[in-house]
Design brief:
- InterPro entries: HD/PDEase_dom, HD_domain.
- This is HD domain-containing protein.
- Pfam families: HD.
- There is one protein chain.
- The protein has eleven helices and no strands.
- The chain is mainly α.
- Helix 2 crosses helix 7 and helix 8 crosses helix 10.
- The longest helix has 25 residues.
- It is globular, with a radius of gyration of 18 Å.
- It starts with a helix and ends with a helix.
Amino acid sequence: MKTHIQAAFDYMNEIHAQDTTGHDVAHVKRVHKLAHTIAGSYPNANHYVIEMAALLHDTVDDKLVNPEAAYRNLDTFLNNLNVKSTDQDAIRYIIKNMSFRQSEQVGKLKTIEAQIVQDADRLDALGAIGIARTFQFAGHFKEPMWTGEATQQELNNQSVQLEQLSPSAIKHFYEKLLLLKTLMNTPEAQEIAAQRHQFLEQFLNQFFDEWE
């Protein structure tokens, strides 16, 4: 199994080595570490599936690659490793359904393995790292850090329609990052998310003090 984990890391590294969107190798390594840490509280979970899915989860992200080709490549990779069909299905289920956008359609993920990997990925969107990744992503896609289209009070009171605002890093806080604390699956992730969420709020207060 260790050889499979190393192979998955190498496969991921080839895809993410040059990433400048915040979905780089360092991000995947943090998600893998967080997933491994959370999984320690669940001895009956399939830790192999958790580690493989954590390492491979962004190799098919449609924000970064052509998903159809990426899924074909992933299938070939898993088949060449002779990964058991049940484990392949479990890994694909996690990767296909764990994203923030997808979760709005599928709801709570069905397996503890999927919930753990999803939590780990979401935790990396919070705290200082989450803030840095948000601005990195916005810069990569030539979005401004903020547009000044609403005040912090309007955003906090939800008196402005987010979909009417232009894309920006700060908008992403309100459409995703600030929601993640309440979406964690495991108690372990909920505890970490609470502290990282607080840091987001502190940052936004300081940001708007300086902006306005």
